[in-house]
Hints:
By secondary structure, this protein is α/β, with parallel strands linked by helices. It is built from seven helices and twelve strands. It has one domain (16-244): Metallo-beta-lactamase, Chain A, CATH 3.60.15.
Amino acid sequence: MGCGSAMPTFQNSPTGQILELCDKSFLIDCGEGVQLKMRQMGLKTARLYTVLISHLHGDHCFGLIGLISTLGMMNRTQPLHIYAHSDLEKLLRPLLDYHCKDLSYEVVFHAINPRKREVIFEDRTVMIETIPLKHKVPTCGFLFTERHRDTEPQKRYAYCSDTMFREQIAEQIEGVDVLFHEATYTEQYADKCRLTMHSTAKQAAEMAKLAQAGKLVIGHFSAREDDHEVFLHEAQEVFPNTVLAEEGRSIEV
């Protein structure tokens, strides 16, 4: 629903993804405009099960209060569970008390430690682990694992945004079916990655190769580059099975 980085453009909105797994819909990050994109894509808000916020930079959470308000106007009754750094509740609670004090449902916050690898959610069908990342503020990715009682292969999806290249990630996500890894810059601007603590498309591809992922999806593109094909070509030179996280695109895990 959003494949851009911090600055929205006519082409790209900030970060937001819906993962549909085992009849559940997980919202991963919630930048500005996510609820509008959900409507445009025909995604059912009633199926929204859980929200996971990787970190508290605005382009990953500024859309959340609007979404919460809209769900209330739609008379939602099912609780909405939000997993994020503990500061998110401190930031949102005054807005909820002022704008959403008559909500028809409960908003339940679950504090997570982005610097620690741990299981933050599990039931009979899905398990979610945090993936410690390296960014300017405490940040984590999320590893989703499908659970089965029989011998059917378990599908696994790893989400890594925002982060510098961090070799330790590969061990945790080894063999994932699909890896989403940020690719804010191309190698031409590698110096900016060191300053802003982001990754290049080439580095994202190197991570996918190191982790032996089945498929790589790249996104979180810098607003300075209108042509996303340059990111794709750079990544495919290292990891051929790479696709772009274009807005409105559905990718099968």
